[in-house]
Design brief:
This protein has helices spanning 4-9, 28-40, 62-73, 83-93, 95-110, 123-135, 140-143, 166-175, 192-206, 210-239, 248-252, 256-269, 277-289, 374-380, 385-388, 435-443, and strands spanning 19-23, 46-52, 77-81, 115-118, 149-152, 155-158, 246-247, 294-297, 300-305, 308-313, 322-325, 335-341, 345-346, 352-356, 362-364, 371-373, 392-396, 399-403, 407-408, 419-425. It is an alpha+beta fold and 444 residues long. It folds into 3 domains: 4-216, Rossmann fold, CATH 3.40.50.620; 240-312, Chorismate Mutase Domain, subunit A, CATH 1.20.59; 322-443, no CATH class.
């Protein structure tokens, strides 16, 4: 059995300037973690973060308790209020998921660059997570439960007690006469984890080593997840282009399980919400039936165009835009502007306006004497429909003189050495071709 002291001794040594931030709820587990770390680290290397979620009346008293304990331990404390974020996510996510998302969001935003976040999850938590994921029908990604170390954009997340049994946590707390608060939601049968804890004694009576056994099962699933990730990366070497889109024909040549594996990792690596099994099956069935596809779930959309598959955050309906350009300082325009010399749109020819497409527009390209229909240019450049619908145009007295940051009417270019405004499209979407590709195809 791994003890608290042994688990913390296995932590990597802190480099110069680094420190730990403990997610401190005031409960037994995080109190044990904070107390044990406080014994071996100076205050300059450790601090506590308490997230106040405001989901129940008792929670209002916990910040005061945490402040008192941190004063006793000589550990700096910061209280983070995420009650507003919890309320905003209740309808969409439900109480447990809303609180968890808001809590981790608050903790991540509070981390300094040199800090690693530590949570007090232990072996019982890992075993419960494995069982809950199994009851939900999860695959290896879910059954792998919680990693001991995760590297995120905001920094490292460490769970040093993940191999420590709950009994060892309790023994440490009582031996050191620690003071903690109990969260009533831990015993609320409306929550999945609380219902599981209600039957845990029965399970443990039949399988005394339940925590360790399920922890090993989670570790096996973590290995399987790593292998599936390696396979997905190998497949994407041949399927993906520089923009990250997938070749539909090559994807269809893979076996069904391999297609699903590739798509799941493709979406996860893009930071997008993963589909349920039924939704993934529906996506693949649509791909088999047609090359024209638009499939979505939650905040994620997958679209097909010209034999390639694109994934993106769900796009809002294209709205009409008609505003002055260049934008005023601080104006959140659909297209920014940069002052240049001898390039872009002549400053002397303004004022300009930026608008979205309304149909029937035309533009003269460099090297051509006539104006070309914008629809024809976009088709030649293979611009996907969802990009065309949101394409910003720059107009002068009702005439299109520039399209996004791709094309400029040469009649509106400044003289050499004269000031100009260069368009900068600030909101590209997946499937948006680069300037070089658009210009090459347009001149084809």
């Amino acid at each position: 059995m791994t003890t608290v002291a042994e688990a913390l001794a296995a932590l990597p040594p802190l480099a110069a300037g680094e420190r730990y931030a403990v997610a401190y709820s005031g409960g037994r587990d995080s109190t044990v973690l904070l107390h044990a770390l406080g014994r071996q680290l100076p205050p300059s290397r450790l601090r506590a973060l308490h997230v106040h979620h405001g989901m129940q009346p008792a929670a209002d008293e916990w910040p005061a308790h945490c402040r008192r304990i941190c004063r006793q331990l000589d550990v700096p404390l910061e209280v983070l209020d995420c009650s507003a974020q919890v309320q905003s996510g209740l309808a969409r996510l439900g109480p447990e998921a809303a609180a968890r998302q808001a809590r981790y969001g608050a903790l991540r935003s509070a981390l300094a660059p040199e800090e690693a976040l530590l949570t007090a999850h232990h072996a019982r938590d890992q075993a419960e997570t494995f069982l809950l994921q199994a009851l939900r029908g999860s695959g290896p990604r879910g059954l792998a439960a919680m990693p001991a170390c995760a590297v995120q954009a905001e920094g490292r997340l460490l769970r040093p007690l993940l191999r420590v049994p709950s009994a060892a946590i309790d023994a440490y707390a009582r031996l050191n006469e620690l003071d903690w608060v109990d969260d009533p939601s831990n015993d609320d049968p409306r929550h999945d984890r609380a219902r599981l804890r209600g039957v845990w004694p029965t399970l443990q009576a039949g399988w005394p080593a339940l925590e360790q056994t399920l922890g090993r099962a989670a570790a096996h699933q973590a290995e399987a997840r790593e292998l599936l990730g390696e396979l997905a990366r190998m497949d994407r070497v041949t399927l993906a282009d520089k923009q990250g889109s997938l070749d539909i024909r090559a994807l269809s040549a893979l076996s069904r399980p391999r297609q699903k594996n590739c798509l799941r990792h493709w979406l996860a690596d893009g930071g997008l919400e993963l589909p349920q099994a039924r939704q993934l099956d529906d996506l693949l069935e649509q791909l088999d039936a047609s090359s024209v596809l638009r499939c979505g779930w939650g905040d994620t959309e997958v679209r097909a165009f010209k034999g390639r598959l694109y994934a993106m955050a769900a796009l809002p309906p294209p709205g009409a835009v008609d505003t002055a350009w260049p934008p005023a300082s601080g104006d959140n325009s659909v297209m920014a502007a940069q002052r240049v010399v001898g390039a872009g749109l002549a400053e002397s020819r303004g004022p300009y306006r930026v608008q979205t497409r309304r149909g029937g527009e035309a533009l003269r390209l460099a090297g051509r004497t006539h104006r070309s229909a914008l629809k024809t240019l976009l088709q030649a450049a293979e611009v996907p429909p969802w990009v065309r619908e949101r394409l910003p145009l720059i107009l002068h007295e009702g005439r299109v003189v520039a399209v996004a940051d791709w094309w400029v009417d040469p009649a509106y270019a400044p003289e050499p050495g004269a000031p100009g405004w260069e368009p900068i499209w600030t909101r590209p979407m997946p499937g948006t071709p680069s300037r070089q590709i658009v210009r090459r195809r347009a001149f084809g």
